[in-house]
Amino acid sequence: MDVAAPPERVWGALTAYMGGSSRRSEAGAALLGCRERSATGSLDRAGSAIPGFRVDRASPGAELALAGRHRFSSYALTFVLEPLGPGRTRLRAVTHAAFPGVAGTAYRALVIGTRLHVAATTAMLRGVRRAAESSKRAD
Question: What is the value of pTM for the model shown?
């Protein structure tokens, strides 16, 4: 997804959008049995967490690699920021997941088969784009 903002601004919007936690995200993480159930640390540091994810790698302005695990799946979500020229960035989300066992297969059918995963990932990218582009107008 192309964003009309430089990588530094997109990074700020990404970490603000993904950071922190809410009662709903904490409850969802607990319901699924996620290891990470609350926000700790800063998303620009490996080892920090948000509900459902821990930070594996963070390279401000370039990459945010998240990983997680719950009773139905282990997964990774990596955001890649690519400069496109002055004031423009391409923001991509790359996902990987394993769904072991019968319960994992059923969960995969629910989130992948219904395209719920695609809708959720696209909504994240659009939310980050909106935040990055609106902060540009506030400058």
Answer: 0.91
